[in-house]
């Protein structure tokens, strides 16, 4: 009951015409950027982060809530109409959604994605409101050794589940940790990795890193693979669902929500796993009903379930982000950077230090989710026309706004040079298949991990036993060991298949 009263108080703060206006602007901007080819929610947030500077902190977070959900909706639009997922979590939506669009059911695919996103996002946000205070109360009791261990576990889990190669994941993580070391040592004041450059003494701003890696890197990558022929965009009518579509969609929406939220609430690397599990579950359930032949040719359940799982996971990620200060997705990393810009320290004490702000944020997430459905569903045909913008003009605009946004952070021309460096880095990690999330996570969590490590060692007088003097820390380290060793052992115990032998033969031929 207390949680409900606090949430109603958040609605009272959010329900002013100014805040509603910022939420609507955020939804429209997020969708506008997110619907463009190859741009996911993380890149949309990175590009639009400087737009919120100068706003009141409450208005900025409300606007970011709209941008967040708008970017999610835009990603599903490109997946369905162009078969071009803006992020890896939208891949499963693209499988059936694009087939539906090619069968002339683009409107139904967009509608089931939008309504499923609304239902999953609403349920997920309500679960965050009810579960996060309890987790925050327990997190206050966590000491520096356990906090360090949890962050280590988060990094290992995120790094090991993304991409086809764990080695590449850890390479991305170490690159991010190295970037996080740049600047003055917090304890000794000694310059690290600055090369004698005074502009690097304060470290590298996460906004410059994020915009460079996401926006500039994506633009360079697209330019290197630019197709001269125009994109084949499937026409969209007014999105709607018939009675049969409703009957086939509501259960996958709920099942996808149930699968997605736990994965988002745990520091386990985002929505890729639950969207895959949701797709597999819906396909198996369809086989029992004799509809398995529709999968691979445009089954509406294959859009409804994964899209709900994606958005429920996106809502669930606010639990570790706000209660523990752990960003488990690239989008969460950008949100954390935005909060840090306003001096908001995410973690166990956030619910007590900034209670009004957090409940207003949760209320604004529900408002933004509703506005997303009300405003954007009728505008789907208009958003589809944006996909016809020629790639050269599109990415020229992205480069301009990315440069303007990075410069506006500190108004320092040196940041533009850094932007080019991180843009080249973003291009390189895409070229060699290195996942971006571990890199960004390393930049964000690296300095905080160092701080908690030093706190734990200071208490123990420099003895390494200070890292394991809490029972929960020991349990977490066991989980870290299982996360690293478990897949290796299971891989050796699993019998080799014909696919493995063919893959090995191909590697030998290369």
UniProtKB/TrEMBL annotation:
Entry coiled-coil feature ranges: none
UniProt-recorded name of the protein: Tripartite tricarboxylate transporter permease
The UniProt record lists the keyword Metal-binding: no
Domain DUF112: 20-441
PANTHER family membership: TRICARBOXYLIC TRANSPORT PROTEIN
Record organism: Nocardioides jishulii
UniProt keyword list: Membrane, Transmembrane, Transmembrane helix
Record-annotated membrane-spanning stretches: 20-39, 109-132, 144-162, 167-184, 204-224, 318-338, 358-380, 416-445, 472-490
Taxonomy, superkingdom: Bacteria
InterPro entries for this protein: DUF112_TM
